[in-house]
Design a protein that fits this description.
The protein is mainly α. It has helices at residues 2-8, 29-40, 47-66. It has a domain at 26-71. The longest helix has 20 residues, at 47-66. The two termini are 25 Å apart.
């Protein structure tokens, strides 16, 4: 579902730089720390952990598409 949303606004092909890149939302250090605490409180094997890993990959791809530095 998320991939459909991310590709829905693209006007070009799948080549980097060929279309419109999705925005990369920046999170404050406080938000990142809170998210880390919340993720740390999840039970072992929680499905959302895998989803968050996928989200991290998508954010890296959006940064590359936009020409931003990938951490």
């Amino acid at each position: 579902m998320l991939m459909l949303w991310l590709s829905g606004c693209a006007t070009g092909g799948s080549d980097p730089g060929a279309g419109v890149c999705p925005p990369v939302v920046e999170y404050s250090r406080a938000e990142q720390a809170r998210a880390a605490e919340e993720v740390g409180a999840l039970p072992d094997g929680a499905v959302i952990g895998g989803w968050l890993a996928d989200y991290a990959v998508l954010r890296d791809q959006a940064r590359e598409c936009s020409g931003l530095q990938v951490p």
